[in-house]
Design a protein that fits this description.
Layout lengths: L2 H12 L9 H11 L6 E6 L3 E2 L2 E2 L3 E10 L5 E4 L14 E6 H6 L1 E2 L21 E2 L2 H5 L5 E11 L2 E9 L8 E7 L11 H15 L6 E7 L3 H17 E6 L10 E3 L7 H13 L4 E3 L8 H4 L8 E5 L21 H20 L2 E4 L21 H4 L1 H9 L1 E5 H8 L3 H13 L3 E3 L6
Parallel strand pairs: 7-8, 11-12, 11-13, 13-16, 14-15
Antiparallel strand pairs: 1-10, 2-3, 4-5, 4-9, 6-9, 10-12, 14-16, 17-18, 17-19
Helix pairs in contact: 1-5, 1-9, 5-9, 7-9, 11-12
């Protein structure tokens, strides 16, 4: 079984769970992910905790919900799809008229065949969600509405994986994904699934230039909570970070810039995507919509951007029942995994190098140039000579990769050859 198939099966396993920004659905999800990475630690932050300008909300759990018509027939059933209940709905058990019922129902009129994803985190109320077709089919009758839920002081739960550098470095790469959505596959199961497999691969690396800080959080309130606990050390240590969301479909790749679009994370994202999928879509920070908002807020200013497949809010299935397991695929998940894999590799090997001799070096006597000069020979070493031309100690490998239009991974064997013959030197960070 390939890694894409493995990730898809994990998505299938997680898909039925009813997740929200708090509650047992989050814990169940983290428990399943923790079975893949035992190094994950689970943290609980009590309701009422002040986190910057926000407060950790009450914990919400739901067991069942339905609507029955006057004949006692279920016309809506939470057990069939958890999107039928507005997130954070209060408990209710009463009979209502059609008019009252209609006021409690949310639909997506411009997409009459979908059930919308609707929440009310910070106002205590209840509600139901159905297709516009279902709502239009309701007749004059009495209806028994029932939600078996609980809203009480509890906690916000998140998972954290800290993977140490093998080179005694303090510098970090930061990966963030969220686990607060109910049954929607691309947004948001693809993010945590791809992230847990990236964490497995990072742990297996024999050499890690960087430390890795990887978190699985509820969106918005989770990132704010985490930042409130760790901001000083993150500002000191994080060199690049990525918000991993909507990475499971086959349609395209998307890049959402940091606030000024000038961080190391932006730089590596654009470099890798330009070779992997040159038709990728670019979005400015003005088109943000996920936790990159929090990581780039004034005063926070972490070097974080986002790389997606179809960007959140930009595909018709987003936040609806159509974002089901048919929305993601093994190939889509694997493609995103490979992009992030390559970005991390680029960061690991991104250094500045300087040629150790003046003028153009003689490659032939070092066995690096064809011994017979003829038409076409130069092409064989063109990438090497182009690399040498820009290895002046001013440019890092990403810069050179961009300038000579060669993927960074293809430069690594060239660098090894040049180092073997002592033609280039790696500059220490303080020198660079």
């Amino acid at each position: 079984m390939g890694i894409g198939e493995e990730m898809y099966h994990l998505c299938e396993k997680l898909f039925p769970i009813c997740r929200s920004i708090t509650g047992n659905g989050v814990r169940e999800t983290l428990g399943i992910l923790q079975a893949y990475i035992s190094e994950m630690t689970i943290h609980e932050v009590p309701s009422g905790t002040q986190v910057f300008d926000w407060t950790v909300p009450k914990e919400w759990n739901i067991r069942d919900a339905w609507i029955k018509n006057g004949k006692g027939e279920k016309i809506l059933d939470f057990q069939k799809t958890n999107l039928h209940v507005m997130g954070y709905s209060l408990p209710v058990d009463k009979t209502v008229t059609l008019t009252e019922l209609l006021s409690l129902i949310h639909t997506q009129p411009d997409q009459p065949d979908v059930i919308p994803y609707v929440t009310s985190y910070y106002k205590e109320q209840y509600g139901f969600c159905m297709t516009q077709y279902q709502k239009d089919a309701l007749i004059e009758d009495t209806y028994h509405i029932y939600i078996d839920s609980e809203l009480k002081d509890g906690s916000l739960t998140y998972g954290e994986i800290l993977i140490p550098s093998t080179e005694d470095s303090e510098d970090e790469i930061f990966l963030s994904t969220y686990i607060c959505h109910p049954s929607m596959a691309n947004n948001e199961l693809s993010g945590p699934v791809v992230t847990i497999y990236l964490a497995k691969w990072i742990l297996e690396r024999k050499r890690r230039r960087y430390n890795y800080r990887i978190i699985f959080i509820p969106e918005t309130i989770g990132s704010i909570t985490y930042l409130s606990k760790h901001l000083p050390e993150m500002k000191r240590r994080v060199r690049a970070g990525f918000n991993i969301s909507c990475v499971g479909d086959d349609r395209t790749y998307s890049y959402v810039a940091s606030r000024y679009g000038n961080t190391l994370a932006d730089k590596v994202a654009k470099n890798v995507l330009s070779f992997h999928y040159p038709e990728y879509k670019q979005y400015s920070f003005l088109q943000r919509g996920s936790d990159e908002r929090q990581y780039n807020a004034p005063g926070i200013d972490l070097p974080v951007c986002a790389v997606c497949r179809s960007k959140y809010g930009e595909y018709s299935e987003y936040h609806t029942s159509k974002d089901d397991m048919g929305m993601v695929s093994p190939s889509g998940l694997q493609g995103a995994y490979e992009v992030y894999h390559d970005m991390i590799e680029v960061l690991e090997y991104n250094h500045k190098y300087k040629v150790n001799c003046l003028a153009e070096p003689q490659l032939g006597r070092r066995g690096l140039y064809p011994t017979v000069s003829r038409k076409g020979n130069y092409d064989a070493v063109k990438v090497m000579t182009n690399f040498i031309a820009y290895a002046d100690g001013m440019n890092d490998l990403i810069d050179i990769s961009n300038m000579i239009q060669t993927p960074l991974q293809e430069l690594l064997p060239i660098i090894n050859k040049l180092q073997e013959v002592r033609l280039i030197s790696l500059l220490e960070e303080k020198e660079a």
